Amino acid sequence: MTKKTPILISIVGPTAIGKTALSIKLAKYFNTEIISADSRQFYQEMQIGTAAPTLAELAAVPHHFIKQISVDSYYNVGAFEKDAISLLTELYIKHDIVIMVGGSGLYVNAVTKGLDEFPEVNPDIRDVLNSRFKNDGLEGLQFQLKELDPKAYNKIAIDNPQRLIRALEVCLSSGKPYSSFLTSENKKRDFETITIGITANREIIYDRINRRVDLMIEDGLLGEVEDLLPKKHQNALNTVGYKELFNVLEKQWTLAFAISEIKKNTRRFAKRQLTWFKKNEETIWFDYEVDLKTIIESINKRVNTLDHS
Fold it and tell me: Where, by residue number, does the polypeptide cross the bilayer (predicted)?
């Protein structure tokens, strides 16, 4: 009897659409485990503002890559790719199907398609760039990337400090443009991916985001951010929901204004997520209110096709 093809069910979609709840239902149905590909949920200190799974949700199904490192740690998408593929190799010994869930498109692609190979980076260069960002902000770094690699400047999210510093450290360490290391070739994986997308019309997505932000504030997000104020320079904390409330704690903004900015910036983030995920033409999209049975039937149909191909 031939062994079944290992399957990765990747659940994607905009923030606040219900990916976590769906992943747990599917993991229970398939009696399997969940890998998180949400780059903000990796951090132990960031619970409320990242909408990380609750203790009850974590207890319901085994989860991986949830709160496993500190915001003080350096962890990038390359390390995640390596760790996730290693873990999947272990999980496929006991499971035919594994669930992956998360809204960080680059991290999802790192697992399903692989990353480009980059040269070793001089850690001293990284330290200097991080120090410049901490002291002077993004603008000088953005200008430097535009000078060194205009192609990368126009392609990457230059308002994301981690992506910007990553591109610069590669340029400066290698003496070559960051963009010269980018290819379109996918790595061969030992599993097949079935990508499930969850979405809704824009008004519903935005309403769900607004309500989630209000709930986060009610649940004590400001206190969580206050505890992290001494670490605000860490790249992990330059993220929506945290950077706005740092401004409140430093008496620059009112709480009401910060909440409105969190909602606005989260809506923009959701729009970017959908743009990214819609690039994958193989994604099977469902409305957020679709019943679980319909999604399971679609997955099983695809699994059967893969097993007999």
Answer: none
Within 13 A of 201's CA, how many CA atoms are on the CB side?
1
Which residues line the annotated binding site? 13-20
35/84 Cα distance (integer angstroms): 8
Mean pLDDT of the chain: 93
| Phi-psi label, residue 65: left if phi above 0, alpha if psi -120 to 50, beta otherwise | left
pTM of the model: 0.85
| Weakest mean pLDDT among 89-98, 165-174, 252-261, 284-293 | 165-174
Find, among 196, 193, 219, the residue nearest to 25 by Cα: 196
Q: Which residues are annotated as a binding site for ATP?
A: 13-20
Dihedral sign of CA atoms 50, 56, 57, 59 in order: positive
- A 10 A CB-CB count for 134 gives 14
pLDDT tens column, 185-242: 788 999 999 999 999 999 999 999 999 999 999 999 999 999 999 999 898 999 999 9
Residue with tokens 């205009």: 150
Annotated binding site for substrate: 15-20
CA distances from 286 to 9, 24, 236, 250, 294 (A): 14, 17, 31, 42, 9
